[in-house]
């Protein structure tokens, strides 16, 4: 870690030393005070404040930490500082790639979805936070998607991983042997069987080691609900673009996430998943990369356009949008609907319309305004 720390910005090193002090952590030669006493030979008036110490002195102290768990703590905090710095900087200076990272980390769900606890031995923590500014500002992109099975202890196990680069070239497409017995292969979803896993030779550590060079060089990880993939990969990396958080529905009172398939239909014009066909992690990783590139290179809008065809909801009902030329025209159309008026669960005005089919069946529909009364 010494060579990597040697290129870190001084302000980052200062914050890492302050973290060590606050947690009472000790390296091979003790804590910060012991390090300074040994270095300064207990000179009176020697400054303890890390900001008053040179870059080389800070590096010399931090490189006395050798335990993996201590290094995990330091790298995690450096990565946290990297995200904090992004949030404090002016968005106007962002590259298109950085703007999508910003949309991800500033989403209300980010702090919950990405609140990993990556301090155990089997986690890989990226060291990008202690790299030079050039590495931290890299705009390289790598998309990831995983297939998971249910293990006997109730956790999810990694069984396949697909990785593609910015040019949509496949970097990795491998089966992975889980470290716990599998109780449900979820074959209808994953397409994976026990026979596939029996042939697998790679472990989770092998996958982490394959991805490590990309992460250390500052690549941005791309994926859909990427937090789930990173959790099963046991990888913590701060530079992420999560297409489930980047794209949003118009006029949504509550953040509602679009499925990868719906995003592909709305933004890219094709379906990544066909009904009754199992997932393919390479296809899903490719789709997530194409969505990111649609915004980065083609300036696609991150607001999901209303579907022109009826869409089936999670409850098995169908919904469709009608778009008017003006709010006045929309208000008048809603006023003309003959039905019982109320509000939906988010407070939006809606009317219940009930009518009878020629077959004698009664059918009900809700006609809802997608904005509050009085909104433009």
Topology order in helix (H) and strand (E) letters:
HHHHHHHEHEEEEHHHEHEEHHHEEHEEE
Question: Helix segment count?
Answer: 16
Task: Give the N-to-C terminal Cα separation.
Answer: 55 Å
For the CA atoms, what is the radius of gyration?
Answer: 26 Å
Helix content: 25-40%
Mean of residue pLDDT?
Answer: 89
Low-confidence segments, ≥5 residues, pLDDT <50? none
Shape: globular
Strand content: 15-25%
> What kind of sheet is the major sheet?
6 strands, mixed
Using DSSP, what is the number of strands?
13
> Which structural class best describes the helix and strand composition?
alpha/beta
Describe the structure.
This protein has 376 residues and is an alpha/beta fold. The protein has 16 helices and 13 strands. The strands form four sheets. Strands 2, 3, 4, 5, 6 and 8 form a six-stranded mixed beta sheet that branches. It has a three-stranded antiparallel beta sheet with strand order 11-12-13, with no helix packed on it. A hairpin with a 5-residue loop joins β12 (349-356) and β13 (362-368). α2 (10-23) crosses α4, α2 (10-23) crosses α5 (68-88) and α14 (260-268) crosses α15 (281-296). The longest helix has 21 residues, at 68-88. The mean pLDDT is 89.
Task: Compile the SSE list and pairings.
Layout: H1 2-6, H2 10-23, H3 32-40, H4 55-62, H5 68-88, H6 96-105, H7 110-113, E1 124-125, H8 133-136, E2 141-151, E3 156-165, E4 170-175, E5 182-184, H9 187-190, H10 194-199, H11 204-216, E6 220-223, H12 226-233, E7 235-236, E8 240-242, H13 243-246, H14 260-268, H15 281-296, E9 311-312, E10 318-319, H16 327-336, E11 340-343, E12 349-356, E13 362-368
Parallel strand pairs: 1-7, 2-6, 6-8
Antiparallel strand pairs: 2-3, 2-5, 3-4, 9-10, 11-12, 12-13
Helix pairs in contact: 2-4, 2-5, 14-15
């Amino acid at each position: 870690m010494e060579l990597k720390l040697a290129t870190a910005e001084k302000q980052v090193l200062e914050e890492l030393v302050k973290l060590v002090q606050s947690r009472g952590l000790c390296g091979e030669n003790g804590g910060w005070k012991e390090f300074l006493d040994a270095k300064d030979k207990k000179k009176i008036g020697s400054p303890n404040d890390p900001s008053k110490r040179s870059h080389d002195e800070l590096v010399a102290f931090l490189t006395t930490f050798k335990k993996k768990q201590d290094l995990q703590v330091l790298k995690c905090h450096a990565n946290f500082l990297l995200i904090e710095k992004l949030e404090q900087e002016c968005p106007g200076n962002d590259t298109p790639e950085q703007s999508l990272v910003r949309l991800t980390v500033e989403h209300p769900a980010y702090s919950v979805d990405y609140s990993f606890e990556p301090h155990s031995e089997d986690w890989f923590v990226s060291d990008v936070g202690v790299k030079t500014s050039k590495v931290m500002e890299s705009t390289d992109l790598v998309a990831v998607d995983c297939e998971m099975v249910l293990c006997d202890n109730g956790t999810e196990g990694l069984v396949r991983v697909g990785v593609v680069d910015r040019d949509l070239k496949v970097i990795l497409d491998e089966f992975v042997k889980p470290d716990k017995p599998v109780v449900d292969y979820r074959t209808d979803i994953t397409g994976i069987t026990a026979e596939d896993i029996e042939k697998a030779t790679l472990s989770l550590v092998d996958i982490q080691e394959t991805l490590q060079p990309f992460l250390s060089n500052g690549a941005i990880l791309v994926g859909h609900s990427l937090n789930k993939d990173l959790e099963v990969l046991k990888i913590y990396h701060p530079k992420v673009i999560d297409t489930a958080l980047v794209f949003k529905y118009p006029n949504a009172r509550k953040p509602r996430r679009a499925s990868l398939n719906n995003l592909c239909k709305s933004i890219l014009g094709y379906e990544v998943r066909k009904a009754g066909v199992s997932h393919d992690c390479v296809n899903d990783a490719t789709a997530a990369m194409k969505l990111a590139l649609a915004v980065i290179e083609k300036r696609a809008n991150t607001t999901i356009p209303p579907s022109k065809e009826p869409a089936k909801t999670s409850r098995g009902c169908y919904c469709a949008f009608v778009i008017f030329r003006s709010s006045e025209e929309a208000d008048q159309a809603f006023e003309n609907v003959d039905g019982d008026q109320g509000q939906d669960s988010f407070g939006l005005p809606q009317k219940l319309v009930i009518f009878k089919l020629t077959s004698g069946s009664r059918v009900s529909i809700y006609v809802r305004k997608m904005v509050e009364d009085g909104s433009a």
